[in-house]
Design a protein that fits this description.
The chain has 127 residues and is an all-beta fold. The protein is built from no helices and 11 strands.
Length: 127
């Protein structure tokens, strides 16, 4: 059974940093794409960043986080991280990770991995 467990959320002041973790289990951590999403109250869920095991580990970032967030993976720990720097109040949301198991997935922003979801972790940025 595929499981994704997020952690690392919390309360931080604007300009601060947090690192979210998405611990994956139940599948071989070889052929996958994992994306980070967020949903703020009253807003639609949006894709934030994506990483794929294909093509040397391609990554994608939404314009709203480009240059501030960094996605990475640790295959030994079967965990994907989202390092969030220079946080802004508008980054406040519940953050989710989601996965698609695929050998040839390309993270491009035109589609997002969404077959399996974690439970989410709250990130609150105070001004």
């Amino acid at each position: 059974e595929v499981q994704l467990v997020e952690s690392g959320g919390g309360l931080v002041q604007a300009g601060g940093s947090l690192r979210l973790s998405c611990a994956a289990s139940g599948f071989t951590f070889d052929d996958y794409a994992i994306g980070w999403f967020r949903q703020a109250p009253g807003k639609e869920r949006e894709g934030v960043s994506c990483i794929s095991s294909s093509y040397g580990g391609n990554t994608y970032y939404a314009d709203s986080v480009k240059g501030r967030f960094t996605i990475s993976s640790d295959n030994a720990k079967t965990t994907v991280y989202l390092q969030m720097n220079s946080l802004k109040p508008e980054d406040t949301a519940v953050y989710y990770c989601a996965a698609t198991l695929s050998q040839y997935y390309v993270c491009s922003g035109y589609g997002w991995p969404q077959d399996y979801w974690g439970q989410g972790t709250q990130v609150t940025v105070s001004s």
